[in-house]
Amino acid sequence: MNSVPRLWEELSESSDFVCYEHQTNTAPFFIGYYKSLTESKVLHQHILGCLSNNSEISFEDLYHLIPVAEKEISFDWDQIHNNILRGNVAIQYGHESHHCILVNAAASKGRSVTIPEIEFTVEGPKEAFVESLDINLNLIRKRVPFPEFRIKELTIGSISKSRVAICYIKGVTNEQYLNTCIQRIEDVQFDQVTDNTLLQQMIEDNSNSIFPQTIGTERPDYVAWAVSSGQICVLKDGSPTAFFAPVSLGSFFITYEDYYLPWIIASILRLIRVFSVLFSVFASPLYVAVMTYHGHAISNVFLPTIVSSRINVPFPPVVEVLIMELVIELLREAGARLPTKIGQTIGIVGGIVLGTAAVEAALTSNFLLIIVALSALASFATPIFRMSATIRILRFPFIFAAQLWGLLGIFIGTLALVAHLLRLTSLGMPYLVPFYPFRTSDLYDTVIRPPYSKFHHRFSFFRSPKPVRFDNENANAKRDIDE
């Protein structure tokens, strides 16, 4: 393909491609575009309108007369082809021309900005990302009206040709982390990247780990906070979510609503989440270990109740636990795949009916039913869905370890988990910071959300060239006049 006419001939094999010829007194103009991608108003008013009003217009005059800001003259056939596929209108002058005017007339079809559906909060803004990259960048840009805020666009996917935007603040974001992120995205070798969740998995440090190493969000205010802290945000055209990195393990148990609540309340809620995670992972394995190997550890107060609840159960504790855990996961998956109202009904009715029937049929004990139900509820306390799924999966290795070696097996499993987490990184940053490597100055805003007077420094593990947010001494000196 070495000329525009040959490009027209190839593209005309698609039924939605239009090649329109407009005659003038000098030479004809050939206008090519995909009608499924082009805004007809821009085409007829701004492009065809200029041609109809002047029958002797030249190629250069037409370029200056078209009242569209995004336009250019191109001699590159690949660029012309790619821009047409993005909704541009190509205008060729004469039969043997080797260059075109490219006018952006892409149709902006899609849903409008709505409230967050996954990360809904009572306090704070009620805007969420949509599938349009330009709208999403606008939502971030208006929250970060800072001249050093930078957006770098890349194209990935040999078939999808997806636009990807990398957002960061120059002088705040560490250059090494930024270059690592850009290099990994540029090195992606995949033909169809349809969503940001695919890109997350492709650029993570360890794709074989069940622990996510980036955080996805649908909230522009969360992204604005992340980039101001020194992190890097990545958005993709066609995806209603963004993700940012580097992140630590503690970041997955923080919801952005914490920053809209008083710091004492937010800190208590964070502690509840941490306790919920520990309970969700270890409750069922501890039941298996105690009932199998350590029955003597049961208090005399609870012993009659537990014995009476299990006296007619024919299965060993591990089988009993696996049956209930799998039933809970089945109900969860069924509720998630069905329409919203039906899914809620199936989850509630199924849980009540199956739980009651399992106890009456002596397939499980009342005590275990309570433990499994509380574990399932506790797993929902994790605000990030990918981490919530990880916690659900973690229970099963611990259950098998408890069956093999009792409490020693749980201890060995915990050591193996900690060893794996110590090896994990996010864009090269250790996953367990600030606990490993231990940094006392970075312990704020982890399990406890401190008051905003303590946020005068950015986290040192982000290695920001500008670690100071504001002068703490100067801020404390400026009090109200009546104090």
Reading side by side through the largest sheet, how are the strands ordered? Answer: 1-2-4-5-3
Distance between the termini: 77 Å
Content-based structural category: alpha+beta
Oligomer classification: single chain
| Total strands | 12
SS summary, helix count = 16
* N-to-C order of helices and strands: HEEHHEHEEHEEHHEHEEHHHHHHHEEH
pLDDT averaged residue by residue: 86
Number of domains: 3
- The poorly predicted ranges are none
As a whole number of angstroms, the C-alpha radius of gyration is 29 Å
Per the principal axes of the C-alpha atoms, what is the gross shape?
elongated
Structure report:
By secondary structure, this protein is an alpha+beta fold. The protein is 44% helix and 12% strand. The chain has 16 helices and 12 strands. It has a 5-stranded antiparallel sheet, with helices on one face. The chain has a 5-stranded antiparallel sheet with strand order 6-7-9-10-8, with helices on both faces. A hairpin with a 6-residue loop joins strand 1 and strand 2. The chain starts with a helix and ends in a 6-residue tail after the last helix. Keywords: Membrane, Transmembrane, Transmembrane helix. InterPro entries: Spore_Ger, UPF0353/GerABKA_families. This is GerA spore germination protein.
